[in-house]
Design goal:
It is built from 12 helices and 13 strands. The protein has 346 residues and is α/β, with parallel strands linked by helices. It has an 8-stranded parallel β-sheet. The protein has a 3-stranded antiparallel β-sheet with strand order 1-10-13, covered by helices on one side. It is globular and about 50 Å long. 47% of the residues are buried.
């Protein structure tokens, strides 16, 4: 196959940041994405509907001059102080698609995240009643826990209890990284689904240390063993609607990644659809790509599928060494490497 046309995909988990970098992140996504679920972990977290509307307007303004635009789907940042009224207002807003749970300290700008998950059960009950999605960064944050075990322990300690207590609450376990998470999703009800990133499909933890520490492959949840990578690939290409595209593309400037305490995040918005296509092609599963990229997420979130399409051609091209990020630069995923598929604008 030399070209492939699929329904326009959506990205169900992406970071756009704020300020001068916002336009660059939006520019790359607008090339091929229909809708993007925007994460709320800004320097000042998006904790209520008023802040979400302001951020929504900022995103729309950043895209004004682009040839095409995507639709931002906004999220609220769950805290220990989130009120039932804020949940109700979010559920009745046309721009909000879910509430994001960050365990405090789990990732970038998560200091305001949840400390006591069980104390938020009354909030989960309201979300279940209002049919509002809970989106989870599923890792425990205990400092003594091995980073490679944090996702599994979150599932065992917290997610199993949440799903048992709230059997009708829609939950997206974001950016899963382990075969344990894959199995949990498979065993759970139809109200539980997950996103899978391109970097967790293409890389494993050996890549993080190949030739020395590679800070631009440092992400949270961290890359895992190849056995987990294999389980993720099998889930992605399975055609099971519980698994769908969520890039977790996260822009950070070069200094922030290469500093003494480098931040977590991999930037893939410049070519995430090409990366996913590469994986599906390698597994002889191109016929499963459209479901994963363009259909299953919309179905889970109760939205119509996009009506237009995108076309990819089999053509080698080289990823740029670096990309502009506001007044700085970032190192994109697969910097200076050759990619075999390319989105073409029609």
């Amino acid at each position: 196959m030399e070209n492939l046309t699929i329904r326009r995909p959506d990205d169900w988990h992406v970071h756009l940041r704020e300020g001068t970098v916002l336009k660059d992140a939006c520019r790359d996504l607008s090339r091929y994405i229909g809708r993007a679920v925007v994460m709320p972990n800004l320097s000042k977290p998006v904790t209520n509907l008023t802040l979400a509307k302001e951020y929504y307007n900022d995103i729309k303004a950043a895209m004004e001059l682009f040839p095409r635009q995507f639709t931002p789907l906004m999220t609220l940042y769950l805290t220990d102080k989130t009120s039932s009224q804020e949940i109700i207002e979010a559920a009745r807003s046309e721009i909000i698609c879910g509430i994001k749970l960050y365990p405090s300290g789990a990732t970038t700008n998560s200091q305001s995240g949840v400390v006591d998950i069980s104390a938020l059960f009354p909030i989960f009950e309201v979300m279940q009643r209002e049919k509002l999605n809970l989106m989870i960064h599923g890792e425990v944050t205990d400092s003594e826990i091995d980073p490679f075990d944090k996702e599994k322990l979150f599932i065992d300690r917290h997610l199993a209890a949440i799903t048992k207590e709230f059997p009708d609450l829609k939950i997206t376990l974001e950016h899963i990284t382990t075969k344990d998470a894959v199995q949990f999703i498979l065993d759970a009800g139809d109200n539980i689904a997950s996103t899978i990133t391109p970097h967790h499909l293409i890389y494993n933890r050996s890549d993080l240390f190949r030739g020395g520490i590679r800070p631009h492959l440092y992400c949270l949840p961290i890359l895992k063993r190849s056995t987990h990578q294999t389980a993720l690939i099998e889930a992605a290409i399975s055609g099971n609607p519980k698994f769908f595209l969520g890039s977790d593309s996260a822009p950070h400037d070069i200094h922030s990644k290469e500093s003494a305490c480098g931040c977590a995040g991999i930037y893939s918005a410049h070519a995430s659809l090409e990366f996913y296509t590469h994986v599906f092609d390698q597994m002889n599963a191109l016929d499963k790509l459209e479901g994963f990229a363009s259909e299953f997420g919309a179905r889970f979130y109760g939205l119509q599928k996009n009506s237009d399409s995108v076309t990819l051609i089999r053509e080698e091209w080289e990823i740029a060494e670096k990309l502009p990020l506001g007044a700085d630069w970032l190192i994109p995923m697969m910097s200076k490497e050759i990619v075999e598929w390319k989105v073409i604008n029609k």
